[in-house]
Design goal:
The protein has about 250 residues and is an alpha/beta fold. The protein contains eight helices and seven strands, in the order βαβαβαβαβαβαααβ. The structure holds NADP nicotinamide-adenine-dinucleotide phosphate.
């Protein structure tokens, strides 16, 4: 694709983990990528990796749960990188606790980032997509959308993200915009490393435990999720919309 028609993508939570993997993959696919995270300085590593490989990237600091910051971030991308027509809502957090111990704050914080975040980001970006009669939205869900002990807040937001995605597909399809969700199972990132810490296990032991349960015999890597996102945001995926693709090394029960 020529420089003038280069697609512009925003990937949230892209300073590290799965988001960094997605940003690097979309840049390798030829897109200019806005690497968005809470702290702009933290995006430098991902931006550098993209630039070192010959790609184009912009570091953007914003809290996706705050409407003003999300709106300003999308506008900044449009001015400095080009009108965004690809949005990957990846930023997400956990605040795990069994229901009887879960605080209002744990519930509200997770809902704000995981559910409100994709809503405000998508609302801000969709005008560029409908303006160009082309757009791709991918929301990162989780296998926990199907229910997971200790994650009432997180599971509710991820199931919510899937309903949000299907609604986007129905509302925006006539503008050439697709919306899909990708639901990873265990991916090796800081999020799962923190899970090991809270279970008082080494990360290696946690990975070994999950590897035995996952049909393909290993845990996932950010690149596994990025490959699925790459397909869904690509030119060829225009007839795939409103779907949830679990990237889980096997079927989920
Ligand atoms: P991670 O390693 O914890 O990275 C998440 C990134 O999102 C961090 O850079 C974080 O910034 C950023 N972030 C957090 N809150 C934000 C906000 N309000 N605004 C902007 N950025 C924010 O997580 P991950 O494992 O890569 O997970 C990425 C996505 O995949 C999440 O939606 C998660 O729910 C989902 N997922 C992960 C797994 C897994 O096994 N890892 C499985 C299923 C689904 P800070 O570092 O500054 O906090």
């Amino acid at each position: 694709m020529s420089q003038e028609t280069q697609r512009v993508a925003i990937v949230t939570g892209a300073a590290r983990g799965i988001g960094a993997g997605i940003a690097i993959r979309l840049a390798a696919d030829g897109m200019a990528v806005a690497v968005l995270d809470l702290n702009e300085a933290d995006c430098a590593g991902t931006v550098k990796e993209i630039e070192n490989a010959g790609g184009k990237a912009l570091a953007v600091g914003a809290d996706v749960s705050k409407t003003d910051e999300a709106n300003a971030a999308v506008e900044r991308v449009a001015v400095e990188l080009g009108e965004p027509t690809v949005l990957v809502n990846n930023a997400g957090i956990t605040r795990d606790a069994m229901l009887f111990k879960m605080t209002d704050e744990q519930w509200d914080t997770v809902v704000a980032v995981n559910l409100r975040g994709p809503f405000v980001m998508t609302r801000a970006a969709q005008k560029y997509m409908s303006g160009q009669k082309w757009g791709r939205i991918v929301n990162i869900s989780s296998s926990s959308a199907l229910g997971n002990r200790g994650q009432a807040n997180y599971a509710a937001t991820k199931a919510g993200v899937e309903g949000f995605t299907k609604t986007l597909a129905k509302e925006l399809g006539k503008f050439g915009i697709t919306a899909n969700a990708v639901g990873p199972h265990f991916i090796a990132t800081d999020m799962t490393a923190n899970m090991a810490t809270s279970l008082k296990m080494s990360f290696e032991d946690l990975v070994a435990t999950y590897s035995k349960q996952i049909p393909v015999g290993r845990v996932g890597q950010p690149a596994d999720v990025a490959a699925a996102v790459s397909f869904l945001v690509g030119e060829d995926a225009g007839f795939v919309s409103g779907q949830v693709l679990y990237v889980a090394g096997g079927p989920l029960n």
